[in-house]
Amino acid sequence: MKCLTIRQPWATLIALGEKQIETRSWRTSYRGTLAIHAGMQVNKAICRTEPYQSLLARHGFTADNLPVGRIVATSRLADCCEVTLQQVQQGWPGGNEYIFGNYTEGRFAWKLEEVVPLVHPIPAKGRLGFWEYPVLEEED
């Protein structure tokens, strides 16, 4: 299965359904199943700011108990579009989604759908860019 490593708290926000768009500096033509891997780094400072702190707390998380080095969810990468100046000026995408991403003109917005959090996140090392995990089944 194709995987993408994302730093915390953003990986968990995706798994919780609080973040539906991942922003990247690169475009992808890939569409399909994508596992969300929480990298080893946690941005603890951002976790202590709003709206991050409240959203994480609502789900029982803090900067100190976010899963790291684990596949935390599966999703479907449905679309990838370049962020335009016009979109930014019009306030797209708005709300928390805008706060959770980097919508600078020229970056790329990856639309994630059908996100399913894993009850038992799977330990994995992770890498830059897309990488493959041999079989994605939750471990008991």
From TrEMBL:
Q: Which residues form the signal peptide?
A: none
Please list the residue ranges annotated as the ASCH domain.
4-91
Q: State one Pfam family annotation.
A: ASCH
Tell me the domain of life. Bacteria
CDD domains given in the database record: ASCH_ASC-1_like
| InterPro entries attached to this UniProt entry | ASCH_domain, PUA-like_sf
Name of the protein in its database record: ASCH domain-containing protein
